[in-house]
Automatic annotation (TrEMBL):
Domain of life, source organism: Bacteria
InterPro entries assigned to the protein according to its UniProt record, in alphabetical order: Glyco_hydro/deAcase_b/a-brl, NODB_dom, Polysacc_deacetylase_ArnD
Segments forming domain NodB homology: 42-230
Keywords annotated in UniProt: Membrane, Transmembrane, Transmembrane helix
Keyword Metal-binding: no
Any single Pfam family the record assigns to this protein: Polysacc_deac_1
Protein name per Swiss-Prot or TrEMBL: Polysaccharide deacetylase family protein
CDD domains linked: CE4_NodB_like_3
Sequence intervals crossing the membrane: 6-27
Length: 265
């Protein structure tokens, strides 16, 4: 009996290691197999997760328009479904729409097949129905992938993480702190992670308001410093895309487009 318990414990720990820990090390720590940084001159990409949100996303879109900035929105399928008009507006104003699961569930708690069918493809179907174009980029909630996602999902979706995190989901981070932190950390090629909704677990509902206030100053400063803010797909269209160890890899637009929607079964 004791032997069986020990064996089961070892198998369970082994499963955790293979299914969760190894993909985490490969993607989040080494940055392999994911896109988290471009290397083209003074271009950077702002990305906004967890929306669309009926209160904050319109304010964010106004702000981006005011500054002539294009960005990438990683939307939840359930929210895109609930707010189709807002989703259409994001697209109409020239921003990129990517997928961030149907609801904000971590991929570690789901099988790769469930993630693929019930979250990614389901959300991509919803967005495609609304805007007439199928999203090709995907960011998992909390940036965590399971082993199956790493092996299969990235064959048909470009998986995007980030190189600069705003820590903007807490109200404790005020607009000035956020602006200071981002200005300190943003470098050429940065992919910046921010949130246009505050209703996910662990976030403060009013936090996006502070993000918006901070972003206003950041966009002004970035322009003065000569940075150009582009969509994630524009950032990666350049010849050099970051792959953790700093190796430049050619991922030309055509090649990526071809690879994006290949089904795996
Ligand atoms: Zn999220």
């Amino acid at each position: 009996m004791q032997k069986l318990t020990i064996t089961l414990t070892i198998l369970f720990l082994l499963f955790i290691f293979i299914y969760m820990v190894i993909p985490f090390i490969i993607t989040r720590i080494c940055g392999m197999g994911v896109f988290r940084k471009g290397k083209h001159g003074a271009q950077i990409a702002f990305t906004f997760d967890d929306g669309p949100d009926p209160l904050y996303t319109p304010k964010l879109l106004d702000l981006l328009q005011e500054h002539g900035v294009k960005a990438t929105f990683f939307v939840l399928g359930s929210k895109a479904e609930k707010y189709p008009e807002l989703t259409r507006r994001i697209y109409r104003e020239g921003h990129q729409i990517g997928i961030h699961n149907y609801t904000h569930l971590p991929n570690w708690l789901m099988t790769p097949w469930h993630v693929r069918q019930q979250h990614v493809e389901r959300s991509a179907d919803i967005v495609e129905r609304i805007i007439g174009e199928r999203p090709a980029f995907y960011r998992p909630p909390w940036g965590i992938l399971n082993a199956g996602d790493l092996l299969y999902l990235r064959k048909s979706y470009r998986i995007v993480l980030w190189s600069v995190m705003g820590w903007d989901w807490k109200r404790a981070v005020d607009a000035d702190q956020l602006a200071r932190r981002l200005m300190k950390n943003i470098k050429p090629g940065s992919i910046v992670l921010l949130h246009d909704s505050g209703d996910t677990i662990g976030a403060d509902e009013a936090a996006p308001q502070q993000m918006l206030e901070g972003l206003q100053d950041i966009l002004k400063e970035l322009r003065l410093k000569g940075y150009q803010c582009v969509r994630a797909d524009e950032l990666q269209e350049r010849k050099c895309a970051g792959y953790g160890n700093g190796k430049a890899v050619d991922i030309g637009h055509v090649h990526v487009k071809v690879a994006l929607h290949r089904n795996y079964k």
